[in-house]
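Limitations
The structure tokens in this dataset are predictions for the assembled complex, not deposited experimental models. Users should treat interface geometry with appropriate caution, especially where small molecules or nucleic acid strands are included. An illustrative entry is reproduced here so readers can see what is and is not provided.
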Amino acid sequence: MSEFKTALYATHLSLGAQMVEYASFLMPVSYSTLEEEHQAVRENCGIFDVSHMGEILIEGKDALKFVNYLIPNEIPEKETSRVIYGMFLNEQGCLKDDLFVYKLSNEKILLVVNAANILVDNFWVRNWRKPYKVKIKDVSSQYGEVALQGPKAKDVFAKYFKTDISDFKFMTFRTFKYQDQDLLVSRSGYTGEDGFEIYGNPELVKQIFIDLVKDYGVVPCGLGCRDTLRFEACLPLYGNETNETTNPYEANLGFGVKLNKPGDFLGKSALVQVQKDGIKRQIVGLKLLEHNIARHGYEVYQDGQKIGYITTGYLAPSLKCAVALAMLDKPYTTLGTVVEIKIRNKMVKAEVVATPFYQKHYAR
Amino acid sequence: MKIIEGLKYTKTHEWIKVNGNEAEVGLTDYAQQHLGAIVFVDLPPVGDSFKKGEEFSAVESTKAASDVYLPVSGEIIAVNEALEDEPGLINSDCYANYIAKIKINNPKELDDLLDAKQYALIANK
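Predicted assembly:
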């Protein structure tokens, strides 16, 4: 076996999880059923082991300048508590990965990247190091991560950590000591619900997971429902909605691009050109008009002409209907456009609808 | 794991119940347990013909779609329409709820299928 295991591996097995290989890690896909876990996060509170995520630490005098060159979003010099959505863009302005940026100080910045891209991202970041005065460390094995998600997450979190969270805003983070060890917690998530992402020593994070499941009735949730939850809220998944041929505007991620920030950044000149020319295709929502389910990779047609493909599709558990995200050529991206999805040997009608499918319930 | 004597089985976890030159085809208990809650069954059009081993239907859980293969060549003469509204019937009783009825083209192909004992060796592995 060549797969990696997180510190919680044995815990998952003892909880009866069905395990699956994901990005070279053995991870729980579900413990009970995908549907029950999905509903627990929507209505109550669930917890995910996401220790497979990668962490890259940038330290040094030029850390802020360097990360501002790596990503198209702006990391301000002054504030520190905001979690910033970042992307690594290639020379064509397309996504190599997307990530969260935690600026601990102007000299110390933590990048949290997708598990599948840890190695590539490490090479990528190191590739652009010169002439910046920074040290780059892959600290993935030093961090465990769990995500506590759902409308009741705030009550559980406040009670467990005996802390006041009334001014803990969504997409901000805090660092504090817990059992004499450092924890980093952001009010954030990947489900469309309120919640917290907790980073720290893998053994400590494991203890938190176990305590919350055993003593607080928090439902352990697997990668199965993580995908249906993020999909309903139309949060992109790298490899589905985005890849090395997708630019941020096509994937509705323009909010993470600040063309007017001071200085150059990787992919900037390409994105300036994209803005000038306009995008030729875009991620849109589709609602199936016939009884069927569209899946990742299915082709989309109109009048016999291929106009795009499905990036993710499900019979959405919270919505009880079949919807999909699709990358479609313009002008078929207009709301109300009727298209056909090739499902096995059938052409199934679908309509372009507004996104997100599920309104996010973030604590603002 | 429930396996019924008298039915024939495939390595891909379909069962076939032969009645003269007609047969019912469905999914085994092993298949439904591994799929989990079935949320959609894509039924074939009546009148279509499929070869032995060809996918004639698909069953889907929330997570994924799985093809269903025809154990022997034949023509679809009926489908289980109850599955359109209640796909979970396959989970509750997979042997009472066939997916399609077929007219068998070549009865000799039945000889290649597994009996209950042979199938049990695969399903209980």
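Some entries come with short summary sentences. For this one: The first strand of chain A starts at residue 4 and ends at 5.
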